[in-house]
Amino acid sequence: MRHVIVAVVATTALGLLGACADDPAPETNGNPPDSSQTATASSSPEEGTPAEDEDSRRAGPPPAPRIAGTVATGLTSPWGLAFLPDGAALVAERDTARIKRIARGGAVSTVGTVPGVVPGGEGGLLGIAVSPTFERDRFVYAYYTSGDENRIVRMPSTGSRLGRPQTVLDGIPGSGIHNGGRMVFGPDGFLYVGTGEASDEPLAQDLDSLGGKILRITPDGEPAPGNPFDSPVWSYGHRNVQGLAFDDDGRLWASEFGQSTWDEVNLVRPGRNYGWPEVEGVAGERGFVDPVAQWPTDEASPSGLAYADGALWMAGLRGERLWRIQIDEGRVIGEPRAFFTEDLGRLRTVEPAPGGGLWLTTSNTDGRGDPRDGDDRILRLSLDR
To answer: Which distant-in-sequence residues (6+ apart) come within 8 Å of 330 by Cβ?
Structure first.
């Protein structure tokens, strides 16, 4: 099979510095990464191919983000972000366990504190999702760390307050690092959840464990119909998935922390094995799905992922930049490009905003950043062509 090389960025020698940005200390796998490597992807369009140059030209000029304003300031370790049908947003603060509502005009209020959250390291109150039938059932979903496990709960919303949580799914491995935590409802109405292997690497390959997986469950927490293993597991072999996004054609994409060499974006297929801990990044090994793009860990360390205006947008923590990855029919077009490099500090979450554009959160109060005036902030981005 022909392979196409996509130059993501000019790589630098990483040595022992190339660790997961959300790990408490640098990790190594015993071998310094090869700084001459670049991102690779399969040439099969169904697996996420970099398109040829003429395809990129036909697509027209790609969108470029511009800061159009500041939505909110003074947040503490914001992590999850989800929009309500009325255009307001809910934000989960990892270390305070509070969920805040940001009105369309920017007013910030606390609508609830989730009981049972045990913050520490990368754990705490993480992802948040709004039911696709919210106007009927009023449910808000949250993912949080409680001791040595992660749980998904749902809470009824009265508008100004959130009610008592009901456990939807528990038993997701948890620890001080690699908790995953991103959640998104798919076009099929089911909830997709990215988990981490909780620093226990073999769990990613263990189909009896919920760690190191992407899960697909019903709104009530049961395995969704059509799952490949008669369990909540949708795909496996993941290290730490903190970004999930669907494109306009219903394809699922995920961003994932590497260890000491490569961070990844993957096109997710049911039942597929994405390789961790046997491989990291593009390996070309039978039985494992290669990422569609990869980055040195000090240039990405990705958390949030969004789809808007024909592109994936990936927020980088250690990389302190927002990546644009143009896609078309499951293929990567041209080279990913970075924006706001080191201008805003650590970036955690990016979400498509009602009416167009993106909301982008900083993550400089999470214990690993350098807080600036007004941090943490939510910024409104316009996408200009």
So the answer is: 45, 46, 47, 48, 49, 249, 251, 267
Task: Name the strand (E) or helix (H) holding 359.
Answer: strand 358-362
CA nearest neighbour of 248 among 190, 333, 329: 329
pLDDT at 26 over 60: no
| DSSP string covering 190-206 | PEEEE-B-TT-GGGGG-
- Measured at the CA of 143, the angle between CA 137 and CA 149, to 5 degrees, comes to 135
What pTM was computed for the model?
Answer: 0.89
Question: Is the separation of the CB atoms in 235 and 205 below 8 Å?
Answer: no
Contacts of 57 (CB under 8 A, 6+ apart): none
Return all residues near 195 (Cβ < 8 A) that are at least 6 apart.
Answer: 150, 172, 173, 179, 180, 181, 210, 211, 212, 213, 214, 215, 238, 241
Q: How does residue 61 score in pLDDT terms, banded at 50, 70 and 90?
A: confident
pLDDT at 59: 56
pLDDT of residue 41: 37
Query: Does the pLDDT value for residue 34 go beyond 70?
Result: no
CA 280 remoteness from chain centre: 18
Closest by Cα among 249, 248, 325, 256 to 65: 325
